[in-house]
């Protein structure tokens, strides 16, 4: 067992997985029993239930596909189970991922001599919450006590940054994995690594390169042998699988050779006809069929750079990550298009795992379980950065047991004996703060000692701690906005994209209907959604808190307050809680934390509906001569063809293709919504003008100087958004304007009287008529007495009882709160 | 989407939640000082030290939470955002009288109210070596 902390990082990849160990100074890749650092993410279960993982299992992919599974990472977080026919069993994707993790854990044990209990596991930057949750669950099933997740591009950059010579610079991480493409812009300055921005394409990966070559081979087969092989035909699936594996090998061979033979062992059986495949594939062919995919990735990079005011040639380094990035043509094109050199000496296949192990150090996740064993002595609670670029960071401590603190002095010393702190007295809370002195680029172990007022030593637990001097990593940013869907199809944002993690927020909502105690039919849903759009139905439903009639202590009337708390940890793992103050009850069970199923019928229906919307929108755009919208609609129409192709493959039994089609359709739906917003642009623009001028009057009359300044800032931002025709930004700025308007309007002596009359006029539609009538009567009395404080409370209660349109509520994922 | 920005949209919130005030720093703080101070405050909050749970602003004391500290650090790492906050942090933390009562925060986020967790020991910051004094 090592005397100093060891940190484990795992890249749980779509195609291959890797483990690395960081000891505070250097990273070592863990080799598996075959001596390789890459373990194929393939699992086989035989008739006796025996599990094989890695290269051994991969050999069965071709000939025993019914009992061998790969690429299950793409199904993480879905309800999709994968069958193993011989063993007559089925496994969830996270169970299969757990088998891969168990295998890596065993390899680490061989390497280090102990079983790691903690680790950091990488996930794609655009993973949705259910997918992250499934990854954590896989780690738990594999026996890890604690894991943190890290976004793959951050891990790559961390590894690249750790080995970099230059102290400052900007980096673009070009991460083309098996299934996704991520581009991240990072900055290192004064030892702080920060993710400046991120973009990506969830539907672009090495698998698409394989598919492009498979399509070319199929065209050749059709041309030369007159046989059509269809991805939509389940009977062709076995042959296609075989072809895909062979194509993958040819693709790898073409990174070194200029041509390669594609020969299948045995003929493909297609509708009873034997098809021989024996082709010579030239590197130029591979480059031609994949060039559009490479260009797509470059467009993403340019978009990311432009979003941060940069152009090609303005970045210091490009870091390549992922198997497909070894393709010579891809490297040449990326270098040419981005105008920056590649980070030298960085292995694109293992960089993510290396970065994950370094990140484990920043999180203080020592893999040695025994290292945390309790020592005897007074317990001291310590807070310090486990890894820091700062040479003089602080350590903060507090004695947490009930012992005597008066006269106690604390002293810290570095284990090389060359630095010792002055004696520090404890404060009234039993706390102390000491500034440390670190030796650069290595683990620094500090001993902590205490002496009582009588000068006698006091044993402390723990008595030592380690800080690695190296880099500081900024809190990882949230990749997608998270919020609660509201009954009016709106979304209350809890954490905006880019928010630093971990994060926790609480807001008060109000129920829109009553929940009768004991009723099994009453169910109040609080949907949790992820996405950037203002309408709940355009965001992904990632979980739901439910308050059922069977679980409430007493009936809950409509308009009741519910305090909802959402919490995200550093890896983006979500937990949610709803407190109902009127009942004193807390509901914590988050249900349906799954990526929705993608049945081919539902996907087809969505495609048909979207085609209808395109026709309607195009007619309108043509009449307005809106070129931008017409261009966008053409893009959506072309992308729909891709979605249809994936849907066909889903019919052929490819569940992963179904998920890909679902995500494509969701993104395209968002684009159509933007086109619809474009149609509504003139109305939005005129509302902006009207709201600004109204706010100007009220803020001018009742606002403070700061509020007037804020309105001026907002007006400028509105103007900028109008000039850029940015509807999302314009709406955001209008909310700022409206907030200012409301705050100032409410200072008018008659404001609440006006708002009362308005709400009272709608009281006949309230969800609780009796209560609404009582409130209106109380309001009248308050108005007579000019008791505006009371009137304000009454109006706010009345608002909570006003109805929500059933249609909007359906769109808002049946949300029961506003 | 209705916005729930960690930096409030009305003037009082904007001043109260200014990252420099949250971190107890002035606008000329170096990048390293910001990181060091943020890390220290997060540690103090984790240890539930009362001296870290509130901070002075020109509109009175405000409650400090780990989320606010993280958000403040993230805001100040972004050069253009930092510049904006520098402008709003020109006032000395206790230069202005407390906020008028009628200017209620528009956002209904539930956070510890300023004063709820006010420091019972006003000199704690100095005693803990957090700041030279105020």
Q: Can you summarize this structure?
A:
The complex is a heterodimer of chains A (818) and B (134). Chain A is of the alpha+beta class and 818 residues long.
Which features does this protein show?
heterodimer, A: 818 residues, alpha+beta, Nucleotidyltransferase, domain 5, Immunoglobulin-like, 6-stranded mixed beta sheet, 19 helices, globular, B: 134 residues, mainly alpha, Helix Hairpins, two-stranded antiparallel sheet, 6 helices, disordered N terminus
Kindly describe this structure:
The complex is a heterodimer of chains A (818) and B (134). By secondary structure, chain A is α+β, with helices and mostly antiparallel strands. The longest helix of chain A is centred in the middle third of the chain and has 25 residues, at 283-307. Chain A is globular and about 95 Å long. In chain A, 46% of the residues are buried. The model of chain A has no long low-confidence stretch (mean pLDDT 88). Chain B has 134 residues and is mostly helical. Chain B has one domain (11-100, 110-127): Helix Hairpins (Orthogonal Bundle). Chain B has helices at residues 11-16, 19-23, 31-46, 66-77, 79-88, 124-127, and strands at 54-55, 62-63. In chain B, strand 1 (54-55) and strand 2 (62-63) form a beta hairpin. In chain B, helix 3 packs antiparallel against helix 4 (66-77). Chain B is globular. Residues 1-9, 96-108 and 111-134 of chain B have low confidence and may be disordered. The interface between A and B is large, with 67 and 47 residues.
CATH architecture of the largest domain in chain A: 2-Layer Sandwich
Tell me the domain tally of chain B.
Answer: 1
Query: Roughly what fraction of the amino acids of chain B lie in strands?
Result: under 5%
CATH class of chain B: Mainly Alpha
The outline of chain A comes out as: globular
By secondary-structure content and strand pairing, the structural class of chain A works out as: alpha+beta
Radius of gyration of chain A: 30 Å
Number of domains of chain A: 6
By CATH reckoning, the class of the largest domain in chain A would read: Alpha Beta
Main beta sheet of chain A, described?
6 strands, mixed
Give me the CATH superfamily of the largest domain in chain A: ATPase, nucleotide binding domain
Main sheet of chain B? 2 strands, antiparallel
Number of strands of chain A: 39
């Amino acid at each position: 067992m090592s005397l100093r902390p060891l940190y484990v990082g795992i890249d749980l990849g779509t195609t291959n997985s890797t483990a690395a160990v960081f000891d505070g100074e250097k990273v070592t890749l863990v080799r598996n029993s075959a001596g390789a650092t890459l373990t194929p993410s393939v699992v086989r279960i035989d008739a006796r239930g025996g599990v094989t993982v890695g290269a051994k299992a991969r050999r069965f992919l071709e000939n025993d596909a019914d009992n061998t599974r790969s690429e299950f990472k793409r199904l993480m977080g879905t309800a999709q189970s994968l069958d193993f026919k011989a063993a007559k069993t089925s496994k969830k994707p996270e169970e299969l991922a757990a088998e891969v993790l168990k295998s890596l854990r065993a390899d680490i044990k061989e390497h280090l001599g102990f079983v790691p209990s903690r680790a950091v596991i990488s996930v794609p930057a655009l993973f949705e919450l259910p997918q992250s949750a499934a990854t954590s669950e896989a780690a738990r099933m594999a026996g890890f006590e604690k894991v943190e997740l890290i976004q793959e591009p951050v891990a790559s950059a961390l590894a690249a940054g750790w080995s970099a010579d230059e102290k400052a610079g900007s980096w673009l991480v070009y991460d083309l994995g098996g299934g996704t493409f991520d581009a991240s812009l990072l900055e290192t300055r004064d030892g702080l690594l920060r993710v400046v921005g991120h973009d990506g394409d969830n539907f672009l990966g090495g698998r698409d390169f394989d598919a492009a070559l498979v399509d070319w081979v199929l065209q050749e087969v059709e041309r030369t042998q007159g046989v059509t092989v269809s991805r939509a035909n389940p009977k062709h699936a076995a042959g296609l699988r075989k072809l895909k594996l062979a194509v993958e090998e040819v693709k790898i061979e073409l990174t070194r050779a200029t041509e390669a033979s594609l020969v299948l062992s045995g003929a493909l059986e297609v509708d009873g006809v034997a098809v021989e495949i024996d082709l010579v594939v030239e590197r130029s062919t591979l480059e031609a069929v994949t060039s559009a995919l490479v260009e797509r990735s470059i467009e993403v990079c340019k978009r990311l750079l432009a979003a941060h005011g940069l152009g090609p040639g303005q970045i210091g380094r490009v870091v390549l990550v992922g198997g497909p990035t070894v393709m010579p043509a891809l490297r040449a094109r990326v270098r040419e298009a981005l105008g920056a050199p590649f980070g030298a000496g960085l292995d694109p296949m293992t960089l993510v795992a290396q970065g994950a192990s370094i990140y484990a150090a920043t999180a203080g996740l020592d893999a040695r379980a025994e290292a945390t064993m309790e020592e005897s002595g007074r317990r001291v609670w310590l807070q310090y950065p486990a890894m820091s670029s700062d040479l003089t960071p602080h350590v903060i401590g507090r004695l947490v047991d009930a012992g005597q603190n008066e006269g106690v002095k604390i002293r810290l010393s570095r284990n090389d004996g060359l630095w010792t702190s002055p004696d520090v007295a404890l404060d009234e809370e039993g706390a102390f703060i000491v500034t440390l002195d670190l030796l650069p680029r290595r683990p620094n172990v500090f001993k902590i000692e205490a002496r009582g007022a009588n000068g006698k030593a006091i044993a402390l637990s723990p008595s030592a701690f380690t800080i690695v001097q190296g880099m500081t990593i900024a809190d990882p940013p949230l990749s997608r906005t998270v919020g609660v869907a509201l009954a009016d199809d709106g979304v209350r944002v809890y954490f905006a994209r880019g928010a630093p993690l971990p994060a926790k927020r609480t807001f008060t909502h109000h129920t829109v209907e009553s929940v009768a105690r004991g009723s099994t039919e009453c169910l109040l849903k609080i949907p949790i959604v992820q996405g950037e759009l203002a309408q709940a139905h355009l965001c992904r439903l990632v979980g739901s808190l439910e308050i059922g009639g069977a679980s409430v202590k007493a009936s809950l009337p409509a308009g009741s307050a519910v305090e909802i708390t959402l919490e995200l940890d550093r890896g983006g793992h979500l937990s949610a809680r709803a407190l109902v103050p009127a009942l004193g009850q807390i509901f914590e069970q988050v249900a349906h934390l799954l990526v929705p199923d993608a049945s081919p019928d539902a996907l087809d229906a969505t495609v048909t509906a979207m085609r209808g919307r395109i026709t309607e929108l195009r007619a309108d755009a043509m009449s307005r001569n809106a070129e931008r919208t017409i261009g966008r609609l053409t893009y959506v129409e072309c992308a729909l063809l891709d979605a249809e192709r994936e849907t066909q493959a889903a019919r052929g039994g490819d569940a992963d293709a179904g998920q890909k089609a679902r995500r494509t359709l969701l993104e395209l739906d968002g684009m159509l919504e933007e086109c619809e917003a474009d149609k509504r642009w003139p109305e939005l623009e005129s509302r902006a003008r009207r709201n600004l001028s109204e706010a100007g009057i009220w803020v001018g009359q009742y606002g403070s100087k700061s509020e007037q300044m804020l309105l001026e800032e907002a007006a400028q931002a509105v103007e900028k958004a109008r000039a850029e025709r940015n509807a999302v930004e314009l709406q955001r700025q209008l909310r700022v304007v409206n907030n200012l308007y409301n705050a100032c309007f409410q200072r008018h002596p008659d404001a609440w009287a006006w708002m009362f009359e308005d709400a009272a006029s709608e009281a006949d539609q309230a969800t609780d008529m009796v209560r609404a009538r009582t409130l209106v009567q109380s309001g009248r009395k308050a108005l007579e007495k000019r008791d505006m404080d009371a009137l304000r409370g009454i109006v706010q209660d009345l608002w909570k009882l006003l109805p929500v349109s059933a249609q909007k509520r359906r769109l808002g994922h049946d949300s029961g709160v506003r | 989407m209705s916005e729930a920005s960690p930096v409030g949209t009305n003037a009082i919130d904007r001043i109260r939640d200014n990252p420099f005030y949250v971190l107890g720093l002035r606008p000329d703080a170096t990048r390293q000082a910001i990181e060091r101070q943020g890390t220290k405050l997060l540690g103090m909050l984790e240890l539930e030290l009362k001296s870290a749970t509130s901070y002075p602003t020109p509109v009175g004391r405000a409650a400090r939470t780990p989320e606010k500290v993280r958000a403040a650090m993230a805001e100040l790492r972004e050069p253009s955002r930092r510049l904006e906050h520098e402008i709003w942090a020109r006032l000395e933390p206790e230069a202005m009288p407390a906020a008028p009562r009628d200017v209620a925060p528009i956002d209904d986020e539930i956070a510890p109210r300023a004063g709820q967790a006010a420091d019972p020991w006003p000199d704690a910051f100095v005693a803990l070596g957090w700041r030279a004094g105020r």
